[in-house]
Predict the structure.
Amino acid sequence: FRQIRQLTALDHLTKEQQQVVMRIVHSVGMPEVSEQVHFSRNACASGIEAINAQAPILCDVEMVRHGITKRMISQPPLCYLNDPRVPPLAKQKGETRTMAALDFWQQDLANSIVLIGNAPTALFRLLEMIANGAPKPALIIGMPVGVVGAAESKQALWDAHEALGIECITLLGRQGGSAVTSATLNALLRCVNGEWY
């Protein structure tokens, strides 16, 4: 992390934002990716408040869920992708499993921490749900990876977050993924636990 500090422009960021960016750089091994990380105005503060409140953590895929540092959380993160109810629901609706899985988020969505690291369709669906009146998470960490829809979904999150009244951390462009997404939450968990790098 000392090397990452030397290689990465961090001075314009808050103490908490620096921790997040360093974790992201550590995950991908590319200091230049720091320029693509975007924070809404109160993203870190809102995320830390939600952590302290033991808010639900909702994940789009199992890889994201498994990447979260378990010793720092009090309850298991939630992921419904492999729920047996999801495949028939997706088939019935004619949509992806990751989109259908969000139907089961409703009861836990208010003031939650949402991690989307794999599925652009899940991020698009979440924005649609919030625009249609679904409860707002405390923080959305939206970092799906890929060449189809990933950059567009993150840009949609960034463009809409103020109008929707949501806090978010995102990594604009095609890069991202499960490891980067869980690393972002892990950085905030470490801030709460007083582990600074």
